[in-house]
Structures are given as C-alpha cells and as structure tokens.
Amino acid sequence: MHTILVVPLSDHAGLTSTSIGLVRALDRMGIHVSFFKPISQSYHEQSEDLSTAYIKTTTSLTPPEPISMEETEMMLASGASETLLEQITEKYQQAAENADIVIVEGLQASSKNQFLNSLNPRIAHALNAEVIFVASAKGKCLEKAKKRICRRLDSACEAIDRNHNDRVLGAIINQNNKDQSEESKPNIDLTNETLPLKNGELKLLGLIPYDARLTQLRTSDLIEPLNAKILNEGEINTRRVTSTHLCARNIDHVTHTFHAGSLIVTPADRSDIILSTCYAALTGIPIAGLILTGDTHPSEAVLEFCQAGIDSGLPVMTTATSSLETANVLSSLNPEIPTDDTARLEHLVNHVARHLDTQWLQKYSETPNKPRLSPPAFRHQISQIARSNPKRIVLPEGEEPRTIEAAVICHKRGVAKPVLLGNHANILNSAATLGIDFPTDIEILDPQDYRDRYIDSFMELRKHKNLSKEQAVSRLENNITLGTMMLAEGHVDGLVSGAIHSTADTIRPALQLIRTAPGVSSVSSVFFMCLPDQVLVYGDCAINLDPDASQLADIAIQSSSTAKAFGIDPRVAMISYSTHDSGSGSDVDKVRTATARVKELQPNIMVDGPLQYDAASNASIAKTKAPNSAVAGDATVYIFPDLNTGNTTYKAVQRAGNVISMGPVLQGLNKPVNDLSRGASVEDIVFTIAITSIQAQ
To answer: Is residue 281 part of a domain?
Structure first.
C-alpha cells in the first residue's frame, strides 16, 4: 500500500482540488484508493471540513472526520504534538483499511496559523507517506512560474526530507494560463517533463489548465451572502453566473451585458433596465439573474408588464443594500464550492484527473490486486475506447437543446463524430441562446436536402410492403426514419435518439430497416449498473417479454460480448429462483436449457446457471449454494429469465441503492442504434453517443 501526502507550496495553490482529483484519477484506473484529511480546514473555518465533504459527495468513500483546528491548536499549545500525531495515525488507519493507495490532503498554512507548515513534514514521516507538491501558476506564464515554483520546491523538499529524492514523488502545477481551454486534450504527455532543482530533477506529474467554469456560482448561491429576497425563483438552482454587470447607465450603454450567464445588478427603480433584462430573457437568453438593489420594490405595473419574461425562468431577487454595496459583496464571495453543487464538483474532479500523468500513476501503484471497474473507471474507459476510433453518429433530434450541447461535448472530447439532423440556422441559434460555442466542423445535415436521396432505397428495403412513392416520402419525413436509412446505407455508423421521442419511435425503424445481425434470433438490451464499487451488466430488462431458452441463450451471448467490448470481464450468471438442482419447474428448466446452449455455442464464455441472485452476487452465500461454480459470488453479467424479472430488478437496485444505470443499450442489430430516456441529461446523452461509437467499432 502507498500513501501520498499532497502538500501546497503556497496559498491558493489548489490543494483540495488536486487531492480529490488524484482520488478520481486513481479510482478511474481501478485502484482501491482512499482519502484522509488529518486536520479540518475551510475558508471560514466552518464546522464541516469541505475536503472530506467533497469526497463524500463525489465518491462512495466515507473517510474519517478530521481533527478540528481548535483541538489541534490546544494540543500544540500544551506541548502534546506527539498525541496529535498519534490521533492522526489512528484516524489514518481507519481510512487505509482495504486501500492500495491513500491520498492524504496536507495542511495549508495561513496568516492565522503559520505553524501548520511545520506539521506537513511530521505527518509525512508519521504516516510513512511520500509527497506530491502542488503549486499555482496563476497570473504567470508557465516558464516564469516554473522558475518561482522550483525555488520554493528546493526549500520545501529540504523540509520534508533532506534526501528528498527518496520521499518526494513530484509536483503538480495548477491554473496553467498557457492553455485557457477547459476542453484541452486529456492525457497530455508528461512522460519526460521534469522541474530542475539544485539537487537534481523532480517529476512534473500534472499540468492543470485554467477552467473558467470552475468559478461559476449558481444563482442560488447568492441568496445567503446578499441576504436577498426572492421575487421569482425561476431556474435559480441551475443557472450559473459567468459575469456580473452593475447597470446604472442608460439602456443604450448596457445592451452588451445581456448574454448567457450574465448577472444584472440594478437599482429597483430602474424600470428601463428591468424591462430590458426581461425582454432579453423572453428572447431565450439564459440570464443568470436580476438583482434589484436599494431596499425598494419595482412598480407592480412594471412587474406585471414583464411577467412573460420573468416566467421564462429568470431568477429575480431584491436586496436591501445599495448597488455598490451589493457589488462589493459579490466580489468577495467565498470561493469554495458548496457541497451540494455536485455538477461543479464533478467537473472539478474530472478536469483535474484528465490532466494528470496517469501512466506514471499506474506504474507507481504497482498493485497486485485484481482491478475493479468502478463507475468513474467505466465512464473514463468508455471515453478512452470511443476516442481511439470515433465513429459518425447521427442524431435525428438535432434541434433539441440537450442534443446540441451533447454533440458539442462529444466533438470536443473526440469520442464521436456527431451528425445533427436539422435546420442549420435553428441549430446555431439554439446553441447561441444556450451560450454554447458551436464548432464549425460539426456536421449539420438539413433533412430537406437529403430525404429524396433515400426514397428508392427505402422502397427497396420495404418492397414486401408494396409501399408507394408517396408513402415512402411520407415515412422519410420522420427524421428518425431518415437517420436510420442513413445508417442502413452506411453513410453513418450509428444512431442515437429518444430525447423527445418514445422508445418505440426509435426502435421500430431500426427493426424494419437495420434488422438483426446474422445468427442473432432477436434484438435485446443491457443496462450498465453503476454500483458504488463496480459496474455490472443486466440483460434483458427492456425489450423481450418472455424469451424462450434459445432466445435467452442468445441474450446471454450478446450481453457477454457487450460487457467485454466495454472492458468488463464477463462472468455470466443465468438468474432464476433456484440455484443449480435445488428447484424444478418450467421456468427453471428454461434457464437450465439456455445455460447449456450457451456452453455449447460459445464454450469460451464463463457462464453458470440457474443461479439465484444472492448466489451470483455474494461470495459467502455462493460457497454454500454453489461451491464449485467459477461464476457464483463473482458474477459481472446477470441474465434475467424474462422482462418482468429483469425490469423489476434493475429498477429496484437503481432506486433502493441510488445506483446510476446506463441504458438500455441495444444489442443484436446489424448496426448500432440506441434509445434515450426522455428525461436524459446532457451527460447521459454524451455517454450514450460514446457507447454507440464503441459499438460501431
């Protein structure tokens, strides 16, 4: 087991973000990682330690609570520093249980407690930890920043260990301004990057670019510091502030302030600014919010006149302070991310994790343990596999806002080559309204220009239905049918739809035009169940009502192949209410026959059944119920006997365990088509597109 102590070189170095980013990066690699903060620290010394809270929010870890700063000061003042280190070691042991690597977040000294600097070396020795230093290049070009950082590293290494080459692993530089793009390519090559020191060189382990999105507060975060009253809640919990504008001039001079993410601060009696802001909101610009200052209320007539703009989701608040006082409060807000802002926290940890030298981390870990595929590892692996050979994925709902945003993200991440079906101007206008910088090289195909090309081939594929040309033209008016024809003709590699259409709308054209792959009896589906510790595959939970033994075997073979394609070692459990020969009946016999057929058709697949769910999933129960099984207790692919069992089980696990499920992912078609939930988030759509891109590989 390794222990890494993350130590800051200066104030505001990005200590916490680097620490939790390291946890995410290691977890993605399937390494059993844990986290520990020895002494509680936060911006305003609040009761809850934010680093520990962030870890609880972004992972399934439950690290021990750190020692309070007050208790630390008391022990040090009374000369009980060894007692303090003993308590730290005891808590560390709790965190280190079953871990291969423990990330320990070091201490950040401040003007109030400079003594914390001297504690970092002592903690490193007490825990036998190796050290990674974290520094900030904010406000400096990288080469100038490196010189300053190297000077500090020399003395910091000396403080940790005189022979620091034995204990100091390297350094991570945060907020590198050279590349301002949050979408800069992940996994940058840091293989030969080092920092020159007096006594040799130190490995550069990460170069984290500046990302403006990490500083964007939600509008709701402003309520408490401003002591504001809400006039209209709107989308106060989801809109984010990208810029703040104090508007006190004539409207002629402030129109440029009305853009996505702008926070408008104005006196409550400035009806012209209020009207203009509401008009901007009514046109579709997602203004972050309107703050009315001066302890007065706007005219009821003005509010009534603006109601349509307000009802578009515009958050409106009032505050008793003047505009200048309000602006001063806004400029001095707590920079820490609230623990309930999961979207920004997730973006933070993923952003840091993407820009670390993961190859070095992998070599360093040298763990002999069998790697588990955790949900972060699974999502990371999906991106990696998709990025290795991105495919053209057609999106028939090309004018739908979430789909547009997902397409841009997929394009920038390089996981697919999205093809949007829709009107070019409408798509660009929607992107602008959402504040999305739409890349010029994303394909947009106007259906009006392409439908006629597929009339003849559509009629040929459906000739057994004796369709007339007029009927074919009518069917191709449906963008999903058009996209499916593009896939059938090989002009795209996959299709994703369903954000605003039913599952039947997505699947029906695929069954009619794509059809099943050779040797496959029926189309089926799987869900990727992202349990806290690993990802499991459940099939079929969405398509086949009551498959016979032959179909069930087919589903098992398909699901095994799907699992393998996504980096999951398939150990297939054929689920029933009976384990092996303990029960009888037609339902058990069906599963028993299906298991034998899988072994006959694909002898290389590790499969066992019938197995009860507890025998398939729990090692101790498996020893009793199926002691000689190579699958029981360690199954990764669960094949349910019918749709009733599969759908009920996946939903029960999903809801009771607060488990994220990805799917349904369709399998068995000649070419990949996947359906979305109509409540799918942008990130859901991104991963479905990436999954489809992998299937197309």
So the answer is: yes
Q: pLDDT-derived band of residue 175, with 50, 70 and 90 as boundaries? A: confident
- Picking from 99, 29, 25, the residue whose alpha carbon sits closest to that of residue 61 is 99
Task: For residue 691, tell me if it sits in a domain.
Answer: no
Q: Which two tokens stand for residue 629?
A: 């099984």
| Residue pLDDT, tens place only, 538-584 | 999 988 999 999 999 999 999 999 999 888 899 999 999 999 988 78
Which CATH number does the domain housing residue 448 bear?
Answer: 3.40.50.10950
CATH of the domain at 267: 3.40.1390.20
Which of helix, strand or coil describes residue 527? Answer: strand
Give the pLDDT confidence score for residue 176 in this predicted structure: 66
Count of structural domains, the chain = 4
238 and 281 share a domain?
A: yes
Look at residue 571 and give its three-state secondary structure.
strand
Q: In what order do the strands lie in the sheet with 673-675?
A: 443-445, 417-421, 392-395, 494-497, 673-675
Q: By three-state DSSP, how is residue 95 classified? A: helix
**Residues 41-92 pLDDT 10s:** 865 555 678 899 999 999 989 999 999 888 888 888 888 887 788 888 888 8
CATH number of the domain within which 64 lies: 3.40.50.300
Residue 679 inside a domain? The answer is no
CA angle at 343 for the pair 342 and 347, rounded to the nearest 5°: 110
Model confidence pLDDT, tens digit, residues 433-462: 989 999 999 999 999 998 889 888 888 888
Q: Which three-class secondary structure string do you get for 175-218?
A: EECCCCCCCCCCCCCCCCCEEEECCEEEEEEEEEECCHHHHCCE
Runs of H (alpha helix) within 270-368: 271-282, 300-305, 307-310, 323-331, 342-354, 358-365
What is the predicted pLDDT for the residue at 468? Answer: 80
Residue at 602: amino acid letter: Q
Give 122-180 as a DSSP string: HHHHHTT-EEEEEEE-TTS-HHHHHHHHHHHHHHHHHHH-TTGGGTEEEEEEEEETT--
- pLDDT higher than 80, residue 402: yes
Q: Which domain holds residue 501?
A: 375-513
Q: Residue 337 domain-assigned?
A: no
Three-state DSSP class for 677? Answer: coil
Q: Is the pTM of this model over 0.70?
A: no
Query: Can you tell me which residue has the tokens 């003005």?
Result: 302
